[in-house]
Amino acid sequence: MSLPGIPEAFSLYKKPLYVIPYRPDLAEGLRKKLEKAIRDFEEDQDNVENYIWLGRQLAYNGRYREGIAVYTMGLEKYPENAELYRHRAHRFLTLRLFDHAVTDSMQSIRYMMEAPDKIEYSGLPGHENYEIYSLYTNTYYHLGLTYYALGEYEKAETTFQSLIDVALQIEPEDSFRKERLAAFQK
């Protein structure tokens, strides 16, 4: 299969990585969610959630660099927002820009400790009501993964332990999360 266009990222082996097209039914749902996120953003750029949601929708559509640009615009307006740093760090990780991912993850941790944890719902079509992740767990998970990719295994282990510590403090509100947490604790 030959994919046209410019690679979105490069693997650790320097091979180009392209966005793989979704099945038509999924692609349509993603396109509609992105269009709505764009409309919401254009109507209200004073709402930090619109920056986060637009960046997420761009990423779900394989437009990672554009998502990073939206998070960067949001950080210019909200420079102490942990969620914007967390999501931008995730996209830097996706693009294998590990140093940037570490920097943004550390900024997210710095600012997230000043507020209560927040559930992050899935943004994928058909999964909107899944609430199995949180700002804290996602931040630690992606930072640990970044350290692992960098070969900094002790830092990865410490970070993953922080993830476990945070996850064990979350009170599951539904049976799915209770089952996941019980399996995780075994």
Describe it for me?
The chain has one domain (21-185): Alpha Horseshoe (Serine Threonine Protein Phosphatase 5, Tetratricopeptide repeat). The protein starts with 8 loop residues before the first strand and ends with a helix. Helix 2 packs antiparallel against helix 3 (64-77), helix 2 packs parallel to helix 4 (82-94) and helix 5 runs antiparallel to helix 6 (135-150). The protein is mainly alpha-helical and 186 residues long. It has a two-stranded antiparallel ribbon. It has helices spanning 24-43, 48-60, 64-77, 82-94, 98-112, 135-150, 153-167, 175-185, and strands spanning 9-10, 16-17, 119-120, 133-134. Strand 1 and strand 2 (16-17) form a beta hairpin. The chain is globular and about 40 Å long. Helices cover 63% and strands 4% of the residues. The protein contains 8 helices and 4 strands.
Q: Helices and strands in order, then pairings?
A:
Layout: E1 9-10, E2 16-17, H1 24-43, H2 48-60, H3 64-77, H4 82-94, H5 98-112, E3 119-120, E4 133-134, H6 135-150, H7 153-167, H8 175-185
Antiparallel strand pairs: 1-2, 3-4
Helix pairs in contact: 1-2, 2-3, 2-4, 3-4, 4-5, 4-6, 5-6, 6-7
